[in-house]
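Render FAD/NAD(P)-binding domain-containing protein in 3D.
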Amino acid sequence: MSELEKRQTVVVVGGGGAGAQIVHSLSGKLDRAKYELILVTVRPFYVHLPACIRMTVTDKGKLEDRALIPYDHSFVKGNGKLVVGTVVSIQSDGDKGGSVILANGNKINYSVLVLTPGSKWEGPVALPDTKEECLQWIRDWRQKFENANNTTVVGGGAAGIKFAEEITDQWPRYGPFEIHHSKEVTLIHAEELLLNHVYSRGWRKGLARRLRKRGVNVLLNEQVEDLTPQNGSVTTKNGKTVPTDLVVSVRHTFHSTLVIGCFTNIPCRGGRPNTEFVASLGPGALVESNRVKVTPTLQLFHYPHVLASGGVIDWYEQKQVAKYGTQRLHDHQKRDCPLGEKISTSDLYWKV
C-alpha cells in the first residue's frame, strides 16, 4: 500500500458559515502526507446569507459581487479539495470510518466525517446552485419588491425586521421634503414585543419605536393565517384588514418562513436543518426537531468518527452564524480526538 493510500480522509459536508471556517482551519494544520481533506458542498461558492436579504431587495452596493464567494482561499496552500455535490446518505463502518453517498451515485470514503450542512431555505434566500441562476434569481426578486406598492412582513424576528428595514431604506415613505411615496411596509408580529424573550423588554420596545419612526407600520399581537392576498389585502386573526400585494412571512414556529406575493403562492420557509441525509445513520442521530444530537465534544452518539457543528446541532442557543465560535468543547483534551494527537476536536468549530 502506497503512502497516499494510507492517508486518513477527513470529509466536511457543507461549506457554509461553520463548514468553510472548519475547512480553512484544518487545511492549515493537517499534514497532507497523512490526511486528505475534502469539502463536499452543493455550490462552487460560499453564500453570505446575512447579505441575502439586502441583496434580494436592492441592487445598491451590488452585493452579489461580494456575497457569492469562491472557495479559492479556503484551502491553505492548496491543502484539500472541493467536491460539488449533494450528500443523500451516510454509511458507517464503525471505527473504520465509512462513506457518504452523493445524489449522482458517487461514493466518498471517510476516516473522519464532519457534518456542517446548514439550513434549507425557501423564498428570496433560497438561492439556486449555479452562479448564473443565482444572479437571475436575485434580479427576479428585486423586481417583485419593485412592483409591490404595499408589502406586508409577517413575523417580527431578526429576518422580518431586516426585510422591513431594507424595504423602507430603498423606498422611504417620506422624502426630504415630506413628499409621500407610494410604498407602504407593514410588520405583523404575533407577540406583544418584537424578537423573542432572549432580548430585554426595553430593547424590544425601543426597536418597535425605531421601526415606526422609519415609517414601518408595526402591528403587535396580530396573526395572519391566510397569507394569500385577497382583493389586495390580508386579514389578521383579530379582523384587521391590511392592504398588501406582497406578503413576506418570516414567522418563527421552529424557524419557519413563508413568502407569498402578487396573488401567487411562493413558499419560503426559512432556516430548517438540512439534515435529512443524517437520518440514514439510524434512530438517535437526530432529535425531534431534526437537529443532530451530539456529545460535549461535538461527536455523534455511537459514532465517534462523525462530528457535527454549526446551526444543525441540538444545543440550546440562538442559531446565529456569528455565535458558532461559542460551540466550545467542554473538554479540550485530545484523548477523544479521532484525528490523532496533533489535531484536537477544538479545531472543529469556528473560532471567532
